[in-house]
Design goal:
Layout (H helix, E strand, L loop, with lengths): L8 H4 L5 H14 L5 E2 L11 H12 L13 H15 L8 E4 L1 H13 L5 E6 L4 H8 L3 E6 L10 H7 L4 E7 L11 H13 L3 E5 L15 H4 L7 E6 L12 E4 L2 H14 L5 H12 L3 H21 L15 E2 L19 H12 L1 E2 L1 E2 L9 E4 L4 H14 L3
Parallel strand pairs: 1-10, 3-4, 3-5, 5-6, 6-7
Antiparallel strand pairs: 2-8, 7-8, 9-12, 11-12
Helix pairs in contact: 3-11, 4-11, 5-6, 5-10, 12-14
């Protein structure tokens, strides 16, 4: 008999989420009594707004929420998502074109699983969120990285995409605002990329989870609003986690053409069935209720964005472009490598991140989690005082 591995090759090849790994390490050090300040987690530090919590409490008391509901989501939530999609993405859709998922991460996985056959290629602008390549691989696809560094604002061009396209290319991943860089494509850039994708018959998976977190009057235009003809070949991924400080509630969604959504619904019916009804009721309140808490959180993020960029750029050898969206800054730290700091000479951003954690007690994510070395990701979704102290520690470390 042929010897079999205990764990499947498909699953054993998956890497642990680097962002969650670093965040868990930081929390373990904090629990052990070390005063670690973590810039690792992509998670607002605010409490979920009270009116959303109260909607969940009321839902928990209602017996109708104690039973199975449609796998694709509560009808009322799908209607609310359709209204939001029209309002923020400029696309009119039927609730039947929507699936409610257990967070945006499930929506990302199901989108790739629905579209990809083994060997299909996905163009992935890089730096990328650490989960994308793993989800693509699980679906049998091939990630084709298209890299844009700090010199071009972390924004890829049509020329770069065209150079990477092959006869196996099926999907373009489009993310604006970006995790990890906070970069936002202008309406003109979005339209140019969308027209290129349409002309080449590509599918687009557009992750819009940060679309409501932009600054300085910048608008993250949806690619389907820029190029309406793409709507029949685009899946939009979104959720309540980032905008409403609801990361733990696990409510995301997919919006797309009827055939893709029907196929994804079949998958979800076997994979997870319905999302928690309590969380879905909370999401309805979030999308249909007052939005002043969202504005207040965005104002705080904007203040922190300016503070962290200013502080980091005072470190010689570090260059932090100003992000226009999300709540991350993605400094180029190549000028800090191959130099000795506290008796250690890091040659990669992975080694640099270890140095920063051990000697400054500050947790950051190394660029290797998102693409090439030479960068770090820092979330500014943490308190103002902690942010200031964390940056000051880094300034002291790299001034020696």
């Amino acid at each position: 008999m042929t010897e079999r591995t205990r764990i499947s090759h498909r699953i054993s090849s998956i890497a642990e989420s680097a962002t969650l790994k670093v965040d868990a390490k930081a929390k373990a050090l904090q629990a052990a009594g070390r005063p670690v300040i973590s810039f690792a987690a992509g998670e607002p530090d605010f409490a979920t707004p009270d009116f959303i919590v109260e909607a969940a409490v009321a839902a928990a008391r209602d017996p109708k929420n104690h039973r199975y509901t449609p796998a694709v989501g509560l009808p009322e939530l799908r209607e609310a998502i359709a209204a939001k999609t029209l309002r923020d993405s400029g696309l009119e859709v039927s609730p039947s074109q929507i699936i409610v998922t257990n967070g945006g991460k499930q929506a990302v996985y199901q989108s790739f699983a629905t579209l990809l056959d083994p060997g299909d290629e996905v163009l992935v602008p890089t730096p990328y969120w650490t989960t994308y390549p793993e989800a693509i691989a699980l679906a049998g696809g091939v990630t084709v990285e298209v890299f844009a560094g700090s010199d071009q604002g972390y924004l890829v061009t049509v020329d770069q995409l065209e150079a990477a396209r092959t006869e196996r290319t099926k999907v373009l991943l489009f993310v604006s605002p970006s995790n990890p860089t906070g970069a936002v494509y202008s309406p003109a850039q979005t339209r140019e990329i969308g027209e290129w994708a349409e002309a080449n018959g590509l599918w687009v998976i557009s992750d819009e989870i940060y679309q409501n977190l932009t600054y300085d009057g910048v608008v993250a235009q949806s690619i389907v609003e820029a190029v309406p003809a793409l709507a029949d070949r685009t899946i939009l991924v979104n959720g309540v986690a980032k905008t409403y400080a609801m990361t733990g509630w696990r409510v995301g969604w997919m919006v797309g053409p009827a055939d893709a959504i029907k196929a994804a619904a079949n998958l979800q019916s076997h994979l997870s069935s319905n999302v928690s009804n309590i969380s879905q009721r909370a999401a309805i309140a979030a999308l249909t209720g007052p939005q002043d808490a969202v504005a207040a959180m965005r104002e705080a993020f904007d203040r922190r964005r300016k503070a962290i960029v200013s502080g980091l750029n005072q470190i010689p050898g570090l260059h932090a472009p100003t992000p226009e969206g999300a709540f991350y800054v993605y400094p180029d730290v190549s000028g800090l490598l191959n130099r000795t700091w506290g008796g250690v000479t890091p040659t990669t951003s992975l080694e640099l991140a270890d140095l920063i954690l051990e000697q400054a007690e500050v947790a950051v994510i190394p660029g290797e989690a998102f693409g090439p070395s030479g960068y770090i990701r820092m979330s500014y979704a943490l308190g103002d005082d902690a942010l200031a102290e964390g940056v000051a520690r880094m300034q002291r470390l790299f001034s020696a």
